[in-house]
Amino acid sequence: MKNRNCIIRLSRYKTALYRLKALGFVKVFSDNLAEAIGVMPSQVRKDFSLFGISGKKRGGYHIDALIERLNEILGKDKVHTVIIVGCGHIGSALMKYRKFEDGGIKIAAGFDIDPAKHAQDADIPVFPIDRVKPFIKEHNVELAIIAVPDIAAQQVADMLISAGIKGILNFAPIRLRCPEGSIAHNINLELELENLIYFVNVLKKKRVNPDETENA
Amino acid sequence: MKNRNCIIRLSRYKTALYRLKALGFVKVFSDNLAEAIGVMPSQVRKDFSLFGISGKKRGGYHIDALIERLNEILGKDKVHTVIIVGCGHIGSALMKYRKFEDGGIKIAAGFDIDPAKHAQDADIPVFPIDRVKPFIKEHNVELAIIAVPDIAAQQVADMLISAGIKGILNFAPIRLRCPEGSIAHNINLELELENLIYFVNVLKKKRVNPDETENA
DNA sequence: TAGATTGTTAATCGATTAACAATC
DNA sequence: TAGATTGTTAATCGATTAACAATC
Asked: What is the pTM of this model?
């Protein structure tokens, strides 16, 4: 169904389509897209049918139309404004992350508790944290990135949501709880690395003992 | 089975266990852990049985022993050395990321093509990129974080793997292909935000039309 | 003992894949 | 037309959940 994996695949199809387009292709078949992102052709057609995307039997899908439709589904047909709360190492790196801008995501401002981080006249200004609520309301911001220490994260999230934020991308190593009507996705960097370490170890054991193979 | 989700759950159990331990608890039941990370108690017991972790009927699991066992399974019973290739915004933020150090992950060095980034005497030194191969071999490094521009990422990955790297955590917005015996996990920041945007839009549609509800 | 909790087996659920009729 | 490709239905697969006997 229209679960997280499915939506992620839509993004990947889109990326692949931009590449094919740049290569001069005009239309594409489900096999091409399947191959490009590493799934079965029936998965591609299934995903598309879920969103009412149709091609032409024998003629495949028109790349331009498909990109446009995918962007529409993913909400990428308009620019989205995002604020970043917590301008430490991670937060300020994200403020300067180019792919956001290229992808129609506008980082409007940063907020931090530390006066040394404040920079009201910078390209992307950094304001004191107590300015975040009025800022959200004034600019109708719906998306926020949280990059504060873990102990502060839930409190910051609650505050942002009460001010009108609907979606949070959280880099603090804690799973945020959200009331209905808002949503948080968590990126836990240490967990990702820990996970990788596990699978590297599995790989190493396989080398030594190729019989006891288990799937990774 | 022992898939990615299962391993991620092990990490989450571990986090929850440290918290319970800090709160003074000594033993824990499958319900407590289930509650803590938001799964069913039978999921917890199933996960544990997959790794031969056993408790006492009626007595639950001993927290200290459980933490130790989980760390062992996850390979966290030893310190892991990691290098970072690409010391731009993201790369240098990760170099300073405290949670890695706290979690027994040692960032040994950074590497960058840009001489302006080099800092051979810094706390975590940054070397020219052509020093990476000898460095990997000399220090037996198996893990790398890639934070270079997307066009360079695959080439860098190939080079690292040929030098002995087994696991790559990739921040370039491209899916790395790896030969057998090595593995890459990809973190695509724009895709994460795009995904969040989609689910926020679903939420907003639900508000307007609560009937046509679909699962997020 | 009675009651609670594990460990495992069986049932359910949902997502992926295969198959194939429709049709260009 | 013959052959290729879609769109959808049915089959498969795997992961999660429920159930329950064992036992502390």
From this structure: 0.93
